[in-house]
Specification:
The protein is an all-alpha fold and about 80 residues long. The protein has four helices and no strands. About 80% of the residues lie in helices and about 0% in strands.
Length: about 80
């Protein structure tokens, strides 16, 4: 049963969990807490990835803003 719960919820269930959470209600609370905690970590990781993209965008915008008029004209001429 513990293997099926591990697979279903993606939460490791070492043998001590049965001792610490001996009732179905207690085990359910534990699984819910662990599942929510795991989901929060994934959200934080995704948000961290987005922040890296924001930094890239800021750097690109800064580079564009620092171009001279001549550089802009040359780059736009190359694009045509």
């Amino acid at each position: 049963m513990s293997h099926e719960l591990e697979v279903e919820f993606g939460v490791p269930l070492p043998p001590i969990v049965a001792w610490n959470y001996p009732t179905p209600a207690a085990l359910s609370r534990y699984l819910a807490e662990q599942t929510c905690s795991h989901a929060d970590e994934e959200v934080a990781q995704v948000a961290g990835d987005d922040n890296d993209g924001d930094n890239d965008i800021e750097a690109l915008l800064s580079e564009i803003e620092n171009l001279s008029d001549d550089e802009v004209q040359r780059l736009l001429g190359d694009a045509e």
